């Protein structure tokens, strides 16, 4: 718009020169007086239109990482789900509150029988899908049955496999019957993929993307810009934004430059690194929120590929890490909290508390016992698709060298990383968002889990998780979850050095609730 404005000004100046040259000064003054009055009116009108256009354009522009190289799906249970719109188009039955506890969303309340094998959820009434259809129990039953269908590619099934049957008691009441007791069952329904879809979504594909959430799909262009518009009939109230533009920017540095150039309004869920933070921290055009999260970055060694088949090698590769130094150099001061290879964060009630100092001598001893007295060479694959991947592997490379572990960093294209590298190579970087203990220990490490990225498999571990779900006493249940985490520490193939504080950067005129990602109420986000 500004370019058009200056072209308009230039044209006026050229017109003035033409009149002066052709008609002389006297005629020039007379004609110019008329032109000035008209021009002032046009300019004011034009400037007013510009101002109104910008003032009314409360559309949040944010990047997404193009995780699945254009194969992103609006189906929340797909392994290539389009994460960003999935959060904005749909709702869950249950969501986490500010401290991570279950709180009502599409369900208003829930109760269980004494053995926690049956759960009844009451649904919110008068909730409409984007196409005007009312939400009923039939939609909930159909959604859960889609997840449980073994013919589908649905990684979240590992989370909800405990469900034996789901039935509609009436239009607004749903009953879940479980295979086994689970006293924390509502936590499972907080999963970001358990979004409620219309009942006939598989028969009518045009229904995919139609949810009950605060925004509606206007245009889907995964590799370009996907446009969402406000759902003015949203059950929690009309969104404060007019819309959200989701712009594909696969590279981390490109996302930072886009924000600095004010081409986007928010850096997105990945945040910025401690090295990037000063670019925004002292710039009055931006503001920063730092949020404690259960998000983590890690290095995975696949347990079914030599030499990682040997638990001694796997542990050696993990105990060479100086986690405090890693957190400081990768995340910056106060950028995160160290962890001993457990994905369960410090804000979770089932977290294992363990100290794990760097042990170079111990690593050398384990490698020698495993047949590698001179150390070993490892190709470690990563990319710039995530802010922290490269600094993480570079710090690890230097630390591991002290135990004669020679890390060869292999950089790969950002736009193909999740399809061609993750879970395909024998050693690679990974990223996970915050999850409850029960969910992450089952989804990422249960032997039958689809996203068991380290190929960790242990029947003893699986039995611990099963027993924990059966145990109604909290303290006894906590001991079982801690025992499962200790198994991962002793034998696992996942190096998880820290959980992050997310440095969320946005333009000064944008306000996003300062809570972890899955707790953001998108209808409350503003852009002034």
Automatic annotation (TrEMBL):
<feature type="transmembrane region" description="Helical">
    <location>
        <begin position="35"/>
        <end position="55"/>
    </location>
</feature>
<dbReference type="GO" id="GO:0015833">
    <property type="term" value="P:peptide transport"/>
</dbReference>
<dbReference type="GO" id="GO:0043190">
    <property type="term" value="C:ATP-binding cassette (ABC) transporter complex"/>
</dbReference>
<keyword id="KW-0732">Signal</keyword>
<dbReference type="GO" id="GO:0030288">
    <property type="term" value="C:outer membrane-bounded periplasmic space"/>
</dbReference>
<feature type="domain" description="Solute-binding protein family 5">
    <location>
        <begin position="102"/>
        <end position="438"/>
    </location>
</feature>
<dbReference type="InterPro" id="IPR030678">
    <property type="entry name" value="Peptide/Ni-bd"/>
</dbReference>
<keyword id="KW-0813">Transport</keyword>
<dbReference type="InterPro" id="IPR039424">
    <property type="entry name" value="SBP_5"/>
</dbReference>
<keyword id="KW-1133">Transmembrane helix</keyword>
<comment type="similarity">
    <text>Belongs to the bacterial solute-binding protein 5 family.</text>
</comment>
<keyword id="KW-0472">Membrane</keyword>
<protein>
    <submittedName>
        <fullName>Related to peptide ABC-transporter, periplasmic substrate binding protein</fullName>
    </submittedName>
</protein>
<keyword id="KW-0812">Transmembrane</keyword>
<feature type="transmembrane region" description="Helical">
    <location>
        <begin position="6"/>
        <end position="23"/>
    </location>
</feature>
<dbReference type="GO" id="GO:1904680">
    <property type="term" value="F:peptide transmembrane transporter activity"/>
</dbReference>
<dbReference type="InterPro" id="IPR000914">
    <property type="entry name" value="SBP_5_dom"/>
</dbReference>
<dbReference type="Pfam" id="PF00496">
    <property type="entry name" value="SBP_bac_5"/>
</dbReference>
């Amino acid at each position: 718009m500004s370019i058009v404005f200056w072209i308009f000004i230039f044209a006026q100046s050229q017109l003035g020169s033409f009149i002066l040259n052709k008609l002389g000064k006297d005629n020039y003054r007379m004609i110019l007086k008329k032109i000035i009055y008209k021009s002032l009116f046009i300019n004011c009108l034009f400037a007013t239109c510009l101002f109104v256009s910008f003032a009314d354009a409360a559309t949040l522009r944010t990047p997404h990482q193009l995780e699945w190289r254009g194969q992103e799906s609006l189906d929340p249970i797909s392994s290539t789900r389009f994460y960003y719109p999935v959060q904005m188009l749909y709702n869950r039955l249950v969501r986490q509150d500010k401290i991570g506890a279950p709180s009502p969303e599409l369900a208003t309340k829930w109760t269980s029988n004494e053995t926690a094998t049956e759960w009844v959820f009451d649904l919110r009434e008068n909730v409409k899908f984007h196409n005007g259809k009312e939400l009923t129990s039939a939609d909930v039953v159909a959604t859960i049955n889609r997840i449980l269908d073994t013919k589908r590619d649905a990684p979240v099934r590992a989370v909800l496999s405990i469900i034996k049957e789901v039935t509609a008691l009436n239009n607004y009441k749903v009953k879940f019957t479980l295979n086994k007791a689970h006293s924390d069952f509502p936590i499972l329904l907080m999963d970001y993929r358990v979004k409620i879809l219309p009942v006939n979504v598989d028969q009518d594909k045009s229904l995919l993307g139609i949810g009950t959430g605060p925004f509606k799909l206007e245009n889907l262009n995964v590799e370009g810009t996907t446009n969402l518009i406000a759902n003015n009939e949203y059950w929690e109230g009309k969104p404060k934004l007019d819309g959200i533009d989701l712009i594909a920017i696969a590279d981390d540095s490109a996302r930072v430059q886009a924000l600095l150039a004010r081409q986007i309004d928010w850096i997105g869920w990945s945040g910025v690194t401690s090295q990037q933070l000063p670019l925004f921290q002292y710039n009055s055009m931006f503001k920063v929120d730092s949020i404690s999260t259960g998000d983590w970055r890690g290095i995975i060694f696949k347990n079914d590929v030599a030499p990682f088949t040997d638990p001694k090698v796997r542990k050696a590769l993990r105990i060479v890490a100086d986690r405090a130094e890693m957190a400081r150099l990768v995340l910056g001061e106060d950028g995160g909290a160290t962890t001993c290879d457990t994905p369960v964060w410090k804000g979770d009630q089932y977290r294992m508390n363990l100290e794990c100092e760097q042990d170079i001598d111990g690593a050398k001893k384990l490698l020698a016992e495993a047949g590698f007295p001179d150390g070993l060479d490892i190709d470690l694959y990563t990319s710039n698709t995530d802010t922290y991947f490269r600094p993480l592997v570079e710090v690890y490379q230097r630390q591991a060298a002290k135990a004669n572990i020679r890390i060869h960093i292999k950089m790969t294209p950002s736009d193909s990383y999740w399809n061609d590298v993750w879970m395909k190579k024998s050693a690679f970087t990974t990223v996970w968002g915050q999850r409850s203990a029960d969910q992450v220990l089952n989804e990422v490490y249960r032997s039958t889990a689809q996203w068991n990225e380290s190929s960790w498999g242990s029947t003893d571990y699986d039995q611990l998780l099963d027993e924990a779900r059966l145990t109604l006493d909290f303290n006894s249940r906590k001991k079982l979850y801690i025992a499962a985490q200790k198994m991962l520490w002793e034998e696992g193939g996942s190096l998880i050095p820290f959980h992050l504080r997310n440095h969320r950067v946005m333009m000064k005129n944008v306000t996003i609730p300062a809570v972890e990602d899955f707790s953001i109420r998108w209808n409350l986000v503003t852009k002034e």
